[in-house]
Amino acid sequence: MAATTPRVLRLLALLQDRSYTGRELADRLEITERTVRNDISRLRELGYPVHAERGAVGGYRLGRGATMPPLLLDDDEAVAVALSIAVAADGSLAVSDLGDQLTRALRKIEQILPKRLQRKVSALHDATEIGPATTGSREPDAPVAAGILTTLADAVRRTTAVTVDDDIELEPYRLINWQRRWYLVAYSMKSHAWEAIPAARITSATAGHRVFAPRRLPDDDLVAFVMRHIATTGWRVHARVTVLAPAETVIARINPAVGVVEPVDDHSCVLHTGADAMETIAIYLSMLMMDFRVDGPPELVAHLRTLARRYTESIAP
Q: What pLDDT is attached to residue 163?
C-alpha cells in the first residue's frame, strides 16, 4: 500500500468539506492537476469513494462507500465528537445496546487526540453530571458555545474563579446536563449565594487566576439542587397545589424536575410545580391519582373547571 503523505491527508480534508474542481485542488495544494489525479487514485486505493463529475459544475467529491474509511477532523470537530460520545455513554441516549460501542469509540478518539484537546474533553466530561431523562420539555433546545462550556469545565477542574458576562465572578462547582440543556452550579460573588445558572444565558466566560477553597455545597446531590431550581423557577408557568396526601407519598410519585414538595401535616403537603404550558400541569396533577386543591394561579383553576365539565359531559347518561 502506498504511503499516506501529508499532502494526501490535506486533500482528503478538503474533500470532506465540499466538492472541488481539479484546478481548485491544485491551487489549494500548490501542485499540478496531474498530481491531483494521482493523489485521488491513492485515496481510492485506501478505500475512500472519490467521485469525479464532468462538466462546468463538475469536480471531485467524496461519496458514500461500502466500508467505513478513516475520517479527518479538525480540532473543534474532534472535541465535539468526543464530547457527544462521552455524554451519550453516560446514559443520555435511551438505547440499551450502544454502551460498549460508545465506550470503544470514545477510547479510540481519546487515544489519538493531542493532549491539549484531550484536556478539554476530559475536563468537561469530569465536570458534568447527567440529569434524569424521565421528564420532558416542549421548550426549544438551548445551545451553548463549546468555548464557554470548556472554559467553565476547566475552571471546575482547577477550582479557579471565572468571570461571566464581563462583570460577574463565580466559583464554579459542577455542570449539569439535562434534556439537551446545560446548567452551571456555582457560588456567585455578586449575590453571595448558590445559583443554578442556565449556561445558555452566559454570553462570555473568562478564566480567572484566583484559586478558591471549596465551600460547603448547597446539597449533597447537585443534580437534585438543579432539578429543584428548574421546578421552582425554570418553567414558563408555575402553580401551588395542596395535595391531600403525606409528603413522602407525593415525592415518590413525581420527578424532581416536576415539583418541590413541602409537608403541611401527616395527611397533606404543598406541591410547587411548573411546566411549559398550563395544560401540562393539569396532566401532572391527574397522574398523581390523589385528591388535591389548586391554590393558584387562577388560570389553572379555570382550566381544570373546563376539563371537569368536558369529562362530565362526555359520560353517557
A: 97
Confidence (pTM): 0.59
Residue spans of alpha helices (H) in 46-172: 75-87, 99-112, 115-127, 146-158
CATH number of the domain enclosing 33 = 1.10.10.10
pLDDT bucket at 270, cuts 50 / 70 / 90: very high
- Nine-digit cell at 54? 464532468
pLDDT in the model for residue 124 = 78
Residue 19 domain-assigned? yes
Q: What angle do CA 101, 103, 109 make, to 5 degrees?
A: 100
Residues 243 and 305 grouped into a single domain: yes
Would you call 32 helix, strand, or coil by DSSP?
coil
* Run of H or E including 176: strand 168-178
Strands 292-296 and 237-243, by their bridges, are antiparallel
Domain containing 288 — which CATH number?
3.30.70
Counted domains in the chain: 4
Number of residues assigned to the chain: 317
- Domain of 207, in residue numbers: 146-220
Residues 214 and 253 grouped into a single domain: no
By the 10 Å C-beta count (0-12 exposed, 13-18 middle, 19+ buried), 269 is classed as: buried
Summary mean pLDDT of the chain: 82
Does some domain include residue 17? yes
Yes or no: say if 171 and 190 are a contact pair by the CB < 8 Å rule: no
Q: Is the pLDDT of residue 299 over 60?
A: yes
Residue 88 — very low, low, confident or very high, per pLDDT cuts 50/70/90? low
Choose one of 177, 192, 220: the last residue of a domain: 220
Domain membership flag for residue 280: yes
Separation of alpha carbons 91 and 44, rounded Å: 38
Q: What is the mean pLDDT of residues 261-271?
A: 92
The amino acid present at 91, given as its one-letter code, is G
